[in-house]
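User: Could you walk me through two proteins back to back? I'd like the raw sequence and the structure tokens for each, with a short line separating them so I can tell where one ends and the next begins.

Assistant: Of course. Protein one, sequence then structure:
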Amino acid sequence: MSENVEIFKRFMVEGFEGGNLDVVDELISPDIVEHQFGFEGSGEEVRDKLKKAITDLHGFLHGLHYTFDDIVAVGDMVWARMTATSTHGGPFFGVPATGRPIRVAVMDVCRFKDGQIVEHWGVPDRFAVLAQTGALDRLKAA
């Protein structure tokens, strides 16, 4: 397995799954360029957004786990298809914890340089999170 794949997996497991914010500074370049909706930007602004995202996820998703369904590395690029599983364990968009299981498809593409992620495109199925937590039910009722 390529070094870049291992770096990506480590970032997902230690960072997003484990809640370790230090891994952001270690594995995400200070010159990062982010393309994912809601996180667009570059540099320290993006690293701060990632740390907040990790913290926010752990506030409402408990026991977060990523399964790497497919992962491909070509040159300085890594493409990954993952499944995130968790339990809705905290408030989310005004919906208190339901204890419901959460299952979300996630697609990521990263470019690497010198052992760090320097560019990222991500597509988590946010609609699935809204539906499975009950946030869509709340909107429908309104």
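----
Protein two, same layout:
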Amino acid sequence: MAFGPSDVVVVGLLSGQSSGGGVTVDFDWTLFIQVGFVVVLFVLLKPMLFDPMLKLFEERERRIDGARKEARKIDEESALALSKYEAAMAKARAEGNAVRERERAAARAAEADILANMRKEVHEYTERARKDLAEELARARSELAPQSRELARALASRLLGREVV
């Protein structure tokens, strides 16, 4: 193998010898040609490849930031809507509880009125029944008073087995 003046030669590595030598680098006109190729490639590829890629990356970042802002906005709106909903539910519960308590109070008052009326009616009915019974008893006594002597005499006669006068 032959090495030219532009090649990098590592002394002692190829031959297996380990000497204290270093790396020899020789620069010549091919370095400038390679740098020129890189510059030409960069100039040609920049508008065709690098700029569109950078625009694509910027557009992606812009969309991501926009999506994040939109997500934050939606999150804030949903939190606001949730707090409004919870406030409305608390208000509706309070109103429902108030209506329920009013209705309970009205039902208790109506129940008390019904019970009072029923007690009054029952009392009036029992008083009428007592009065009717007293009248019936008085009438029965007045009807049976004349017959009571005869009935008593007939009963005593039967019990005694002889005629009682």
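The chain has one domain: 9-148.

Let me know if you want the two compared in more detail.
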